[in-house]
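Worked Example 4.2. Consider the chain below.
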Amino acid sequence: MSKQRKTIGRTLSQSPLNTPAENGEFTQTFIMRSGKRAVFRLEHIDASDVANQTFVLMENNGRDQAALTKASLQDITRTLRFQQFFAAIGRKIDGKIEILDGSRRRAAAIICKTGLNVLVTDSEITTEDARQLAKDIQTAKEHNLREVGLRLSVLKDNGMSQKEIAEDQGLSQAKVTRALQAASVPQELLTVFPVQSELSYPDYKLLLTFSEHLAEKQIPVDSLLKDIDSELTVIHAREGHTAEDVKNAVLGLLRRKVASLIAGPAKDKVQTTPLWNFAEKDRFARKKSKGRMFSYEFNRVPKALHDELDNAIEDILSRHLKNE
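Applying the procedure from the previous section yields the following structure tokens:
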């Protein structure tokens, strides 16, 4: 007798939307990290209220809201206009809803100008419980390395060492180090990537190096971005290119521009000026200059001319420099 294979991941039958209470409302009970139970009820937020009546805290949700661009949300905006498969999860705070899980759905709803279904609780939930709940019920894309780093930065700012962070979050110390490095990249430098989730650790490390070089030369990041704005527009407008193609093109542009900005001043080239044109190739009378230094060169000129040049130079130097 064959055994039915267990379904991996969430299915529509598991959705909280299919758990009606006796009064007709859809509810879902979650058990917090502390062991406390909280009941969530389904609410629909009108399109005009999503931006103002809901909000996201990075330290709890863990998603970098600045990275939620129209390009990065295409997988959601494609269907959200017609249906929302899973409700976001939130808690009421001072009359508004903090989105614990579903910030990508929230951002997509704002872009699409559509409403948002949210399972909301009025129960008092501690910050620790809220943070763990958001981590446990995460249903969207896995948080990228920078988003992990931004969340860990909160713990570091609260006085935890990287070793303590690694133990608390169940991560290797190497992963913590990489994530914190990714979080250290200036946000302005990331705005040029339409889909930031394409960035890998080597990419973040390269961007961090760029920012450090710019800081050493006291060159503002926004000054760099203004210089490459027209070239970025061309890259972003290319049709048929994948997000990875765009990322690689932008990184290449940044690499070239940063290299030119941090390079030392170009060395002065020797400039040669002919003083007389001779028929023979091996005869010349010329002046060479480099910066503030210059010299005169002669080859195969008559001795009488040579002597007269010596006398002329000596006379000129005497008249101009005799009082020094």
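The two ends are 111 Å apart (CA to CA). The first strand starts at residue 27 and ends at 31. Compare this with Example 4.1 before moving on.
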